Amino acid sequence: MNFTFLIKILLIPLLILLIAVFIIAPSNSKNESFAYITNQGEDTVSVVSLNDLIVQKKIAVGDSPLGIAIIDSKELAIIGNVDSQNLSIIDLKINEVIETIQIGTAPLGLTPDPSGEKVFITSWFKNQILVLSTKNFSVSKAFNVGVTPSGIAFNKKYNFIIITSRDANLVEIYNATDYSLHKKIKVGSHPYGISTSDKFIYVANVYDDTISIINLKNWEQKVIKVGLRPYNIISYKDKAYVTNAQGDNVSVINLHTFKEIKKINTGETPENISVDKLHGNLIVSNWGSDSITIIDIKTHKPVKQIKTGLQSRAFGQFIYTK
Amino acid sequence: MKKLTLFITAILFSVSVFAHGPTPQKVQESVTVNVSIDKAWALVKDFGAINKWHPAVKDIKIEKRGEDTYRILTLESGDKLEEKFRSIDEDLKKIKWEITKGNVPFSDFNTYIIVSKGANANESIIQWTARFYRTYKLNPPIPEGQDDATAKAAVQGIVDNGIAGLKKTLESK
Prior knowledge:
The complex is a heterodimer of chains A (322) and B (173).
Chain A: H1 3-29, E1 33-39, E2 44-49, E3 54-60, E4 65-71, E5 76-81, E6 86-91, E7 96-102, E8 107-112, E9 118-123, E10 128-133, E11 138-144, E12 149-155, E13 160-165, E14 170-175, E15 181-186, E16 191-196, E17 200-205, E18 210-215, E19 221-225, E20 230-236, E21 239-244, E22 249-254, E23 259-265, E24 270-276, E25 281-286, E26 291-296, E27 301-307, E28 319-321
Antiparallel strand pairs in A: 1-2, 1-28, 2-3, 4-5, 5-6, 6-7, 8-9, 9-10, 10-11, 12-13, 13-14, 14-15, 16-17, 17-18, 18-19, 20-21, 21-22, 22-23, 24-25, 25-26, 26-27
Chain B: H1 2-16, E1 25-33, H2 37-44, H3 50-53, E2 57-65, E3 68-75, E4 80-89, E5 94-102, E6 107-117, E7 124-133, H4 148-171
Antiparallel strand pairs in B: 1-7, 2-3, 3-4, 4-5, 5-6, 6-7
């Protein structure tokens, strides 16, 4: 038996095994995902297992819960309760409310910063952004913004907090370090849901039945016709997905051609949308049919509808993967 | 003077229709009707026929404005209500419309009716869902008569009377 033969039969399989372990290991570290759905009509949050496609638990929160922020690094969900004007903090390890924080205003949109140390909250009535510290769960700062601040997003690349000022038809961009105003951009009528990527800002213009896609480099704005009453918008890879609340569908936008390529049927009055990356699905909350719709990202077909609770909304990124 | 008051009310209302607070309200009711799904759907989908089945509607006028279809309802109370047709889905047997003008204690009223199969061929289920907001948009305290409860009671009345009227009309034919 010569030495090269030994290498072939022993070392090569070992090398293959090592490579396989390195490829598989990272994807094995996260193997379960959940949707946390605020049910505004019954003051609860449904915990939906996206592995088993069942509602695992309902958690009682404050009055009329709407917005949500998931903080992966701290295993927390922050729920904004509009009518009781407080926040419910859910520990995602035990799925229980561990704190309730009064904020003295109706919380609308919530988004964490990349570190998970802060959550930014649009204060509908006070026309402010509140800064919640996740260390001690207190509002450490509030700064003034435009009227009826609604959707909110954090851009990591540019360190921006971006909001829609609904009744002013504006998008406002703030520096996330000193909270100074960076820019205001006129968009369509009644902008509500907003999200961002490294390249763009995506906005749903509810009354125009359009979306605006704003280029972060040169502020060029593309306006694209979608379905009836677009409510929220997200992007994933080279597509954007828009919930059309009165059209009962989701528009799929190609981000190379900036054209709508498909409409996918959902339940009644779809409002919010997040990506379940683990299973390659889009999850849509349906206010009208008290449910979520699961859509296969590859085929763009609805796979299943799951009953959640009365008036399911979940305004924000609502998927937790562990 | 009365005309002027009406005009002012109309202006105020048409503004309030397009602004609202953050909590939409929902009323959803259904009724089983002893007629076939096709018969029930034929009446429900006729946007110009609500005066035939809704007890609060006295008269109706259809208006085309460009691509859009509106109906102007004269109510038993004498008030006028303007509604805009949104869509019909023949597969789901669903009709959608919205209120665009009217002196009502709620705002942003979007609604749909779905007709589905009942337990047998001569039975169908009619479900009416409405989404709307209260009229007061600012921070609490909320003035009496402009709150969620007032808005909900008014819409509940419209929907309850409507589905009872649909059942009565369909089954008397």
